[in-house]
Each structure stands twice: as C-alpha cells, then as structure tokens.
Amino acid sequence: VDKRAFAEVDSQLRSSLAEALSTISRNTDNRDRAQANESRKAAHAERSSEAAQEAAQSAQPATELDEAQAAVIREEIHKINRQHDALKDELRDKDRDHHRDQRIVERYGAAAPCLGAEVGLRVNVFTTPDRQYDPDKSYTT
C-alpha cells in the first residue's frame, strides 16, 4: 500500500468527517434555538391567554354598571341637546326680531323707537344717524 495515497485518502476522510461534524453541530444548535424560541412563544401565549381571561372575568361585573352609567349619560346628552335646541330657537327668534327692528330704523329713522312702542314692537337699543336710542327716555308724543 502506498503510504502517500493512504495519507491523502485519510486526510480527505478526516476533512469530510470534520465538515460533517460541524454541520451536525450547527444543525443541533439551530434546532435547540428553535425549540427554545417555541418554548418562549408558548409560555408568552399562555401568559397572554391567562391575562386576557382574567381581564374578561373582571370586566363582566363592570359591564352591568357601565350599561347603567351609559343610560344615565345618554339621558343627560338628550337633555343637553333639548336645551341646546331651545337656545338655538331663542337665538333665532332674537336675531329675527333684531333684523325686523333694524328694518324699522332704516325705514323711519329717529322716530323708530316711538313708532315701535306705539305698534307694540319690541325695540332693541340701536343707533340712528342723528341720535342714540335711550331706553330710559320716553319717545312717545
């Protein structure tokens, strides 16, 4: 047997064996890491599931209270909306009256407060080109 050929084959076998062992070691390490990751994921999922169950159980009694509170809040909202609508109506009426009074002043000038009082109109404080309306002063003749 040729010693040189034997040494070459032996070297190749050792190299192949070392490479195979290295590959096996890497695969084992990768498998171990994957198993550890899966274990961590499973533990995390279990903790999350337990926390979700606890939260759901603790939230159930509060739901009845929340529904009662929601009914009270809804009623308050309806009440506030009705008040808001009433205020809008009142503001619209005042605005309409103000514009009517402005038209009277434009048409009749300084005599407008007197005319408004005679015909029973509500007269706001307004200015005319020649004088300011004084609610304490009598304009009736």
Topology:
Blueprint: H1 3-108, H2 112-118
What does this structure look like?
With 141 residues, the chain is mostly helical. It has a domain at 3-94. The chain has helices at residues 3-108, 112-118. Helix 1 (3-108) packs across helix 2. The N and C termini lie far apart (149 Å).
Low-confidence stretches: 118-127
Roughly how many Å apart are the termini?
149 Å
Overall residue-averaged pLDDT value: 77
Record field, number of beta strands: 0
Assign an overall shape: elongated
Which H/E pattern describes the elements? HH
* Number of distinct helices: 2
Question: What level of helicity do the residues show?
Answer: over 70%
Strand count, sense and barrel status of the largest sheet are:
none
Beta-strand residue fraction: under 5%
Output the structural class.
mainly alpha
Nearest-angstrom radius of gyration?
47 Å
Keywords: Coiled coil
